[in-house]
């Protein structure tokens, strides 16, 4: 039976992952900010026959509260086989440019809070000497694009942190997976004009995440074709890239 900790459990991708894990024997500890929605996710998993679903409401920008939440999670589950970190926001780049407080809050939501969690989690997983830390980053972290460079900066920090953490924890049997989704049809992207051919469903992304965990992949783009798209974007010459609005 898998013991699964999901941080940011209300996100569409996290919910899709949880539903797929619920087809196997699994026990869950779910963390998110919105209590009402969190209980809906928990009720859905219980209806699918899950033996244990524990919830914990937390604003993940409250960094000092991470430790007590993790203590409760590990006490409840005993051992964490998979921890999925899936929380985050999609900032308004224009607002971040105009208001430093907005910029720092969004950087904390998408970058600092993840790094804080991983630092505490890594020490606990190192003691276990087993398990997977699966972290949702983004293709946005591959290059600082004018349309979303605050978000991209936070995700770049997460991806780089995971790379170093992976090399550290590999030596003690702990797997670290970096997940880089492209455009996904979620509430976070509603209202954006996105090319439908590039738009994935949360279920598609969840399947990719599950396969990557099972195969102990280091990093994935999801859907797969984003690896090719980002290869092209990373290799646009700087002189030309400065003239784009992507």
Describe the structure.
The structure is a single chain. This protein has 246 residues and is of the alpha/beta class. Helix content is 48%, strand content 16%. The protein has a single domain, classed as Rossmann fold (3-Layer(aba) Sandwich), CATH 3.40.50.720. Strands 3-2-1-4-5-6-7 form a seven-stranded parallel beta sheet, sandwiched between helices. The termini are far apart. The mean pLDDT is 96.
In short:
The protein has helices spanning 12-21, 35-47, 66-77, 93-98, 100-128, 149-170, 202-214, 226-234, 238-241; strands at residues 2-7, 26-32, 52-57, 82-85, 132-136, 175-181, 219-222. It has one domain (2-241): Rossmann fold, CATH 3.40.50. It is α/β, with parallel strands linked by helices and 246 residues long.
On the 0-100 scale, what is the average pLDDT?
A: 96
Total number of beta strands: 7
- Strand residue percentage: 15-25%
What is the level 1 CATH name? Alpha Beta
Give me the CATH fold name: Rossmann fold
Q: Helix fraction?
A: 40-55%
Low-confidence stretches: none
Please, what is the CATH homologous superfamily?
Answer: NAD(P)-binding Rossmann-like Domain
Shape: globular
* Largest sheet report: 7 strands, parallel
Q: Which series of helices and strands comes N to C? A: EHEHEHEHHEHEHEHH
**Major sheet: arrangement of strands:** 3-2-1-4-5-6-7
Helix count from the secondary structure assignment: 9
Based on the structure given, which CATH architecture is correct?
A: 3-Layer(aba) Sandwich
Count of discrete structural domains: 1
Radius of gyration: 18 Å
Query: Structural class per helix/strand content?
Result: alpha/beta
């Amino acid at each position: 039976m898998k013991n699964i900790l999901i941080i940011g459990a209300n996100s569409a991708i996290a919910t899709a992952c949880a539903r797929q894990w619920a087809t196997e024997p699994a026990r869950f500890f779910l963390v998110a900010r919105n209590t009402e929605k969190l209980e809906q996710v928990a009720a859905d998993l219980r209806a699918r026959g899950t033996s244990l679903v524990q919830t914990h409401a937390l604003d993940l920008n409250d960094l000092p509260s991470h430790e007590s939440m993790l203590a409760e999670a590990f006490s409840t589950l005993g051992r964490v086989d998979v921890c999925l970190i899936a929380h985050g926001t999609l900032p308004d780049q224009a607002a971040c440019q105009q208001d430093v407080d907005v910029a720092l809050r969004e950087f904390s939501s998408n970058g600092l809070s993840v790094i804080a969690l991983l630092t505490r989690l890594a020490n606990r997983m190192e003691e276990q000497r087993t398990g997977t830390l699966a972290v949702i980053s983004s293709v946005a972290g591959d290059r600082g694009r004018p349309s979303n460079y605050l978000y991209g900066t936070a995700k770049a920090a997460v991806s780089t942190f995971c790379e170093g953490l992976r090399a550290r924890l590999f030596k003690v049997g702990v797997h670290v997976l970096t997940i880089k989704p492209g455009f996904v049809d979620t509430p976070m992207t509603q209202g954006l004009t996105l090319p439908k051919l590039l738009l994935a469903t949360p279920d598609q992304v969840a399947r990719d995440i599950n396969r990557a965990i099972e195969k102990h992949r280091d990093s994935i783009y999801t859907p797969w074709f984003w690896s090719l798209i980002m290869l092209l974007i990373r290799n646009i010459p700087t002189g030309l890239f400065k003239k784009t609005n992507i």
